[in-house]
Amino acid sequence: QVQLVESGGGSVQAGGSLRLSCTYSRYTCNMGWFRQAPGKEREGVAAVDSVGRKRYAEFATGRYTISQDNAKNTLYLQINNLKPEDTAVYYCAARPWDWGVVSALDLDLVPRNFADWGQGTQVTVSS
Predict the structure, then answer these.
(1) How many Cα atoms sit within 13 Å of 77 on the Cβ side?
(2) Cys staple from 22: which of 51, 58, 65, 92, with CB 3.0 to 4.6 Å?
(3) 46 touches 63 (CB < 8 A)
(4) Cβ contact 92:82 at 8 Å
(5) Cβ proximity of 34 and 40 under 8 Å
(6) Which of 39, 56, 33 has its CA nearest to residue 114?
(7) Is 40 helix (H, G, I), strand (E, B) or coil?
(8) Whole-number pLDDT of residue 100
(9) 94: nearest Cα among 7, 20, 27
(10) CA–CA dist 63, 56 (Å, integer)
């Protein structure tokens, strides 16, 4: 099991930026970010694989950037031009090696494709 701890959330005004961080206990083949707004299902935001390929949800294209620093065991999510509809709890997720290595380009951004989860970090965007 991979331990994941998110940080970096907060309350910001629309148009601002945030960089979320997720420290992980060990490196895995696929890692991703999800978010869950009140009353809504958890939805995928972005994912990265072991060779650095990235995949983004349609809504995340252009304003969100996923990156990873394996030397620091940290996954990042940069969010620019924040909008009130970005308000949600953001979760970091990991897919273990023994589930099979999958290209991020082929990995559906759904919760069932990830095994381990952090506790989440709240992002609140005011207009």
Answers:
(1) 33
(2) 92
(3) no
(4) no
(5) no
(6) 33
(7) coil
(8) 85
(9) 27
(10) 10
Q: Are 77 and 69 in contact (CB under 8 A)?
A: no
Quick: pLDDT tens for 31-80: 999 999 999 999 999 999 989 999 999 999 999 999 999 999 999 999 99
Amino acid at site 61: T
**Confidence band for 121, pLDDT divided at 50, 70 and 90:** very high
Strands of 1-127 (E only): list them: 4-7, 10-13, 18-24, 30-36, 43-49, 54-56, 64-69, 74-79, 88-95, 116-117, 121-126
Residues 6 or more apart whose Cβ sits within 8 Å of residue 112: none
Residue 101, pLDDT above cutoff 90: no
